[in-house]
Amino acid sequence: MFELLGAGLADIVQLKYLTALLTGCLIGVVGGALPGITITMTVIVVLPFTFGLEPLQGLATMIGVYVGGETGGLITSCLLGIPGKPSAVATTFDGFPMARKGEPGRALWLGIWASIFGGLLGAVFLVATTGPLAAIALAFGPWEYFSLFLLALSMVAGLVESSLAKGLVSGALGCVVTILGNDPVLGQERLTLGIPFLSGGIPFLPVLIGVFAFAQIMQDVERMGGAAKALEAVDRGVNLAVSHLKVILEILSRPFLLLWSTFIGLAIGVLPAIGGSAANMLAYDQAKKFSRHPERFGTGTPEGIIASESSNNANVAGSLVTIMAFGIPGDAVTAVMLGALTVHGIQSGPLFISQHATLAYGMFAAYIVAHGLVLLLLLPGVRWMLRIVTIPKSMLFPVVLVLCTIGAYALNNTMDNVYVLLVFGVFGYAMVKFRFPLAPFILGVILGDQIEINLIRAIMTDPNPWLFLTRPISGGLIAASVASLAFSIWQHYRHRARVAEADADF
Amino acid sequence: MRRDAIAGLAVAAASLFLFWLTLGLEKSALVPVGPGFYPRIVLGVTIALSLWLVISGLWTKQDKAPKKERLNYALVALQFGIFGLYVGALPFLGFRLATALYTAAANATLDPPRGARGWGRVLLLAVLTAFLSHLVFERYLQVLLPRGSWTGF
Known about the structure:
Chain A is mostly helical. Chain A contains 21 helices and 2 strands. In chain A, α3 (39-50) packs parallel to α14 (332-343), α7 crosses α8 and α9 runs antiparallel to α17 (393-410).
């Protein structure tokens, strides 16, 4: 393992990979810092640029965007009180008050260093667990895979939205997308609705790009008036000088907080399609609960910043574990990465680490090195970020959509994918307006074919349906799915009861 | 909420239609369950879930309406319209011309230009986006972009 990691590190420091990684980090930091531009959107924008690159170059770029984005998001959170991305919301609670108290440099660098530590601790978990988890997954038969994918879908549907019904409908709709076109087992045509393009099925990348990009952009467009304004309250003369040693010691003097927040980030990252937005809020909440001075939270306490930022960077490592060991995207960003792998003809999943060891360990190395590069970029460049965030969205959005169009078209040089992009752009926006969560839908689109393939394989091997329950791992996974749904229903009713109680008190 | 019920009904109707289509699928001699087996499960589950959504939507007490923010849906519709025209124009005008026109139209409608400087910004953004993206993708990344059947480039 260490030998392979060493080889991966030796690969990634080669100029062609390092340049790609550095570019990704830079784009990620900028994308993360821009309020309204999520990391998912940034990685979607970067996707078409990776088509012409080697697989490791492309994936290093995306990992750079991911790590850079998670760190970059805290800049506006701390200095402007506006989270650059959803996973930096909790950073705003204490980062901005600390900055307003006259310590903007401390707030910012506490966040940056906590991100670096959280990310590097996450790297240990990533490197140590991906291989063993993939080895466990290799022992799976079609029954276990079917049950695992079902568990992933039920967890996402249950966890991402207060309405379980909507989460489940959203996941089911994602699976419906995959039944249009060829039957993945025998290639028999079905449900093409007379559209020749559908005979090949709907490729998931244009669906993903359309759903996420339009849902995000159009929600911002709704709030734009006749004249879209850029951020104005940027104090470019702000003093960001700080003693880095002092900041590092301030973080390391709270080892339990750092480790616990990192663990939360990792755990949330491993769960499919939940993401850093939940991780930073949960870590912040836990830090407050464990603190001797919970009343100080929200007034500029360093614990709040450390918890939020270490967890959201560790979340990246957790997401990478899930995709590399099981082929299940941990969040939307890793879903795009899955698409990039497919474009290069690489199948993710348990065989990935053994069949493409150089690439897998190159990705680990890229993740580790990205943290150092982000730090190098931010040391002299934080002040520049404050200028960049003033770029008006009215200029950014058309450019982003042009790049999305290129991404969809370049998949196999056909306009059909661009039409899919447009159709699912409208669909994604409609889903958001009807308050359907997007994550289960995307997971359904990604896993639908795999669920079908494994179901049919299992039936062809042995038609006894009880095997799904009697095989220990498969049965355990199905029981976990049922438990996850039961937990969601209980949580939903508890929430409603509390709301009713609060209404009655009022 | 009523909105959930409407969404549930729409999903149920579309799923029912697809379910009906699966009944016409021929069975394969090689796979005992046939190509319609899995789609029927998925669509059956989707119909059941959407009916649950309809029922819960009709039965659940309406949430207290939060203070409504004024949202600019006309601008959203306009942006979708402009993007739709862009997608429609790409095969005829080609990437460079269609992209320049789209970027200019989208930017001008999102932030209406005032005076020569404003129009200059619109023009510059349009030309730079079309030119730079074409240059980077076609020249350096070997990604082919759409050619226009009317324009020839």
